[in-house]
Amino acid sequence: MKTIVYGREALVLTVILAGAVFVGVRQNRQEWELEKTPDPGVYHLNISRVRPGNFWRNSSDVPSGGLQNFTVGSPDHSGPVRFEYRQDAGTLVCEGRMYFGRGSGTWTFRPNPAFIASLQQLGYSTPGDDQLFDFLQSRVTLEYARAIRDLGLGATTTELLQLRQHGVTLDYLRDGRAAGYSQLSARAFMDLKAHGIGIDYLRDLHTAGYRLGAADLITLHSRGVSANFAAELKGAGYDLPPGQLADLHANGIGTEYVRRLQRHNLHPPADELIRFHSHGVDPDYLSGLEKAGLTNLPPQEVTDLHAHGVNTNFMLASAGLGYQFTPRELIDLHAHGVSEDYLRNLRASGMTNLSAEQIVKLRSHGVE
Fold first, then answer.
1. For residue 18, what pLDDT is reported?
2. Are the beta carbons of 47 and 28 closer than 8 angstroms?
3. What is the mean pLDDT of each run of 10 residues along the chain (368 residues)?
4. What's residue 75's pLDDT?
5. CA nearest 308: which of 327, 290, 284?
6. What pLDDT, on the 0 to 100 scale, is given for residue 286?
7. What angle do CA 262, 268, 269 make, to 5 degrees?
């Protein structure tokens, strides 16, 4: 019986504890933690907020001057403490205890009405308390808000906060606009920053003559297309949209390959460049085709000739002997072992004006 009683007590205790945990999760909690860092006069401040279904935490290093009104002589002491963490958007009033360089407690948020009024005067919509708290944590200052307005980005109150959260500095925005991107929106600059696109990249592309929006800039950068690569291709006559530039780069087509083509007065379109390069067709081979009179061939026929090993010397020789074979005929002749010498021997023996089909039959029947 005693064991059964203990079992019931344990069961009741478990239910009570489970209920306590459940209640604790549903309760709102607003807590801070503070500890010294190796840097003299600098403290690491953690601010957390728990709400039903949501946990938020932010950490930052704060100089001691940014913590107002310590109620103990020094945060190195042990005892009750009350201090304020102030930003333009408002103040966190923190209460708790310090334990020789470390402390914890709870906080309340006190919005700054003057900040709200100034935002309104600048043309921003009125932020709510939750948004003001986010402004405080992201250190959105009135100076930052005013500068964003003056840059003409047309940022909303939400975008003002998001710009700061994405690490978009005023220098980044000013330099981006000076580099030729005055048409980009606040959202566009956030996207560029999030993808790690620097000002030099933007400036170099603009200098090379590209007038691109954020989506195209991100496409090029994310696919590893350098500004120099884009500039050189443009200088070589390939003024291409970002997608094609990225495709050329992905297929390993460098400007040297393009220059070699141009030395042979060849300028195939971008899709043909990719096809030729991927099939190992080099500029010398293309030049040989032209010398043999095989001009303006569809890319498929060019790659078929190359894939079947039909060399350009054979094409030149057959043309010199008066033959005008098609690519398909050249492939058949090569497949049946018809060489330049074989063609000469046929002509020397008086067999002229033969078709490719007739030559193949002669070769197949062992006529030498």
1. 44
2. no
3. 40 42 62 90 90 87 82 69 93 91 93 96 93 93 96 94 95 96 95 97 95 95 94 89 92 86 82 88 86 85 90 90 90 91 87 88 83
4. 57
5. 327
6. 85
7. 130
For residue 193 the two structure tokens come to 């920053």
Closest to 323 in 3D by CA, of 282, 292, 366, 362: 292
Distance separating alpha carbons of residues 75 and 85, to the nearest angstrom: 14
pTM: 0.72
Residue written as token pair 């002997």: 321
Neighbours of 132 (CB within 10 A): 24
Separation in Å, CA 24 to CA 7, 18, 19, 20, 341: 26, 10, 9, 6, 94
Residues in contact with 339: Cβ distance below 8 Å, sequence separation at least 6, in sequence order: 314
Contact 343, 359 (CB under 8 A): yes
Tokens representing 332 are: 């058949």
Q: Are 125 and 147 in contact (CB under 8 A)?
A: no
SS3 call for 270: helix
Between the alpha carbon of residue 101 and those of residues 77, 257, 331, the distances in Å are 7, 65, 84
Secondary element (H or E) of residue 170? helix 170-178
Tell me how far apart the alpha carbons of residues 221 and 219 are, in angstroms, rounded to a whole number. Answer: 6
* 36 close to 43: Cβ distance less than 8 angstroms: yes
Give the C-alpha separation, 179 to 207, whole Å.
8
- Identify the CA nearest to 162 among candidates 198, 130, 191: 191
Q: What are phi and psi of 126, to 5 degrees?
A: -70, 120
- ∠ at Cα 257 (253, 258), nearest 5°? 95
CA 320 to the chain's CA centroid = 54
The residues facing 106 across adjacent strands are 31, 95
291 CB-near residues (< 8 Å, 6+ apart): 312, 316
User: Does an H or E element contain 63, and which?
Assistant: strand 54-63
Pairing of strands 67-68, 54-63: unpaired
* Element housing 45 (H / E): strand 42-51
The domains of the chain are located at: 2-28, 29-111, 251-297, 308-368
Distance CA 43, CA 66 (A): 10
Q: Is 273 exposed, middle or buried (0-12, 13-18, 19+ CB in 10 A)?
A: buried
Residue that has been written with the tokens 């250190």 in this structure? 139
